[in-house]
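REVIEWER CHECKLIST
Item 1: Sequence provided? yes
Item 2: Single chain? yes
Item 3: Sequence as submitted:
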Amino acid sequence: MHTRALAATVVFQALSEGRSLADTLPGAIERLGDASERALLQELSYGTLRWYPQLDGVAQLLLRKPFKRKDGDVFALLLVGLYQLMHLRVAPHAAVSLSVSAVDDLGKSWAKGLVNAVLRGYQRDPALLARACGKSSAALAHPDWLLALFKRDWPDHWQALAQANNARPPMTLRVNQQQVERDAYAAQLEQQALRARASDFALQALTLDTPVDVVNLPEFARGWVSVQDAAAQLAAALLDVQPGERVLDACAAPGGKSAHILERQPALGELVAVDRDAQRMRRVSENLQRLGIQATCMVADVAAAADWWDGRKFDRILLDAPCSATGVIRRHPDIKVLRRASDVAGLIEQQARLLNALWPLLQDGGTLVYATCSVLRGENELQVRDFLATHADAQEIPIVAACGHVCTFGCQILPGEADMDGFYYAILRKQQR
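Item 4: Structure as written out by the authors:
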């Protein structure tokens, strides 16, 4: 199948079926043998969904009537074509002609003239983009409901937050300190003409100037380095595990934080990694095996402790809670079309349920680090506020942050700050009775 037709199919599956790029794109990529075409498919799929609110705004100005649901794949192809014209350095004639020829692969030859007319209509009228961007949703390429939440929660930062979400994410590495020092690994990268800059906040983090395939990273297969955003790397430092302690990584998949905890403190007593997704837990085991480290891995609903917990309390718990993922949209642009405003209340309830379920599993004097990759206050500092109000034995330990925003409870990093994803952290200590 034509690369652009495959991209349209992937985009259609996100728009009409609610399927994520992580679910659909790998299978689509396997259908292409050429590496450059695979890269193009990924670029078209990610880019079209990243700019979807803007592309949709322009398309609606060009269409006389909306497409029927059964022809949503043709509409997706139109968006893919517009993305090439508006955001890629593809020759305009090629973007149009190749998009038109891709219609045949969708089995919708009748739409060739329509696709051609719409794309050429955009070329003829450069004012279309400005007209579409009269609406904030198109100008900032986010759905209106999400922009409203950003503006409510971050009135001085909401536009910059949205713009950061639209940027291409950097590729950041976590150097395994059990194998090599960060500066020494940076020197190895330099020898392979891979330039990287060290993070001022995550002490094992190096951010590459240009992303590369992991197979090109020195000693990747031997576990010297992993790919993990610098903001996510802060979790292990905040948890601050000591030798001999028993640790729970709740909602652990895909295992980056578990691995980092073990790299930082190989003398801990036991790390238990739990997640309800069996497929993602296989990735945890694979990541740990590559790094040459071990943990107790379980597939279970971590909130249903009776199903998996052996009754021995934990000294430290990391709860990287399910959330709206509004801090990592630059990495997962399909969030813009998959997430709904109505989802947020359910996520807040789930986070509260997890906090309440895990608190009894923590030793007196123990520490729980609550984390999300959200920027919404309801999931973050308000969640912690409500937990503290209902748990007299819980004490917040303030985070002295050199970066991010110190909140009434916890600390918030917004997307793009210090090259990091958007993350929230709070440290809770269980007071001894």
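Item 5: Key structural point noted by reviewer: The domain at 171-227 is CATH 3.30.70.1170 (Alpha-Beta Plaits).
Item 6: Recommendation: ____
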